[in-house]
Each structure stands twice: as C-alpha cells, then as structure tokens.
Amino acid sequence: MNSIGTTITENIKRVREAIANAATVSGRSADEITLVAAAKTRTATDVRQAIDAGVDAVGENRVQEMTEKNTLGAYRGAPLHFIGHLQTNKVTKVVGICDLIESVGSATLLEQIGKRAVSLGIVQNILIEVNIGKEPQKSGILPEQADEILGAAALTGGVKVLGLMSIPPIFEKNEENDNNCYYFDSMMNLFIDMSGKKYDNVYMRFLSMGMSDSYTEAIRAGSNMVRIGSAIFGNR
Asked: Where are the beta strands (DSSP E) in the chain?
C-alpha cells in the first residue's frame, strides 16, 4: 500500500475513533452512525482506498465526476450517495445509479426524481435537504416547509424518503458561542417532529449532518450520518 493509501486508512481510523467517542456522549453506539466519504475532486484510486479501509458509503457532489469515476469501478463495495446540488436536467444521470440522493431540496426536484424512477420501474431512496440557516445562496427547503414536502412525497410514486439532510451555516467556534450546535439542535428537533407524523413513502431513519469540521458536534446533537471529506482524504 502506498503512502497515500496508508494516510487514508489512518485518517479513517481516527475518524472512526472520534465518531465512537461522540456517539458514546449521545448515548449511542458507533455502529449507529453511517460514515460517508465525501469524494469531491478525489480520484477513483482514493475512493477505492477509502472503501477498502471501511467507510460505509461514498458521497459525490458533481454528476460528471461521479459518472467518470463510476465507469472506473470506483464505488464497488460501497453504497453511492449523491450529496451535492442536483439540477433537474441531471436527474436521469443520478436516479437508479445512486443508492441514496441526499440533496432533494425542492418539490420540483422531488417530482422529477419520482417520474424518472417510475419510468425505470424502481423506487429511489432520498433525503430531504433542509436549509436550516435560511441562507439565500444555499439550496434546500425552509424548515417550515418540511411538513408540506413530506406530504408531497407521500403522493409521489417512485420515491422513498429516508430522512433529512442539512448543511448548516459555517461559524468560527469560540468558548462562548457555537452556532453550529444551535443549528444542529434545530435540525434534530425538526427530525423528531417529522418522525412523529405518518406519511406514505416516508421513513425517518437518517439525519445527515456534520462534515469534517463539525461531525462530532453533529453526532452529539443526534446526527446518525456524517459526510467526511478532508478528514479522510486530506486537504484538496
């Protein structure tokens, strides 16, 4: 194994240890946390090494990059998630290819995914992306729209909602203030609220939040799926 592979393996070991510690603090087992390797800009070789080192899934942000790496067999042995902004004109290249689309952030996208899945005779697993910080530059539904879009999902063939995803605003941490925790807690409260409601096609299993700079805080707040890039692969 080359030095890059060794680094990836060692990084994943460190991430797993941090996940286990955070899970313990939140009264859970590390086995309850899904580790997604965020592979944006990483090579197919890097992805293969991460899979061999035991990540639970691989997440991609860009359709073209995902397609290219898929032709190289980069994802064999691990589920493939789409975690980036998905344009409606790229739906045909993702539905049926990805095991989970984490970034469904509008009713229009939900509808297009459902149509494509029905045409393929499959059910596509998805998460609903929530713009918890209400940032205008980010995609995702507003928190107050969650009930509405889950209701729409219940009437949409070809999809199964497995939970929620969010990318909270980024803040510098200090001893007096950690705004990330505020948003993580807000997402957890929304997840609990939506889990208490009954919709067809909706199974609130996953709360995907937390990245390399925030995944331990997210897990302590209740996340059970984290998307880790630089902490696994190193800085771009």
From this structure: 34-38, 57-60, 80-82, 100-104, 124-130, 159-166, 202-208, 225-228
Residues 206, 127 contacting (CB under 8 angstroms) = yes
150 contacts 141 by C-beta, under 8 angstroms? no
d(CA 124, CA 72): 23
Per DSSP, 167 falls in state -
Give the containing element (helix H, strand E) for 59. strand 57-60
**Structural domains of the chain, ranges and CATH numbers in brackets:** 3-233 (3.20.20.10)
Name the pTM for this structure.
0.94
Cβ-count burial of 73 within 10 angstroms (0-12 exposed, 13-18 middle, 19+ buried)?
Answer: exposed
Rounded to 10 deg, the angle between the 107-120 and 146-154 helix axes is: 20
Rounded Cα distance between 212 and 227, Å, is 7
CB 60 within 8 A of CB 81: yes
Query: Tens of pLDDT along 76-131?
Result: 999 999 999 999 999 999 999 999 999 999 999 999 999 999 999 999 999 999 99
Residues 167 and 154: their CA atoms lie apart, in Å, by 24
Q: Which amino acid is at 34?
A: T
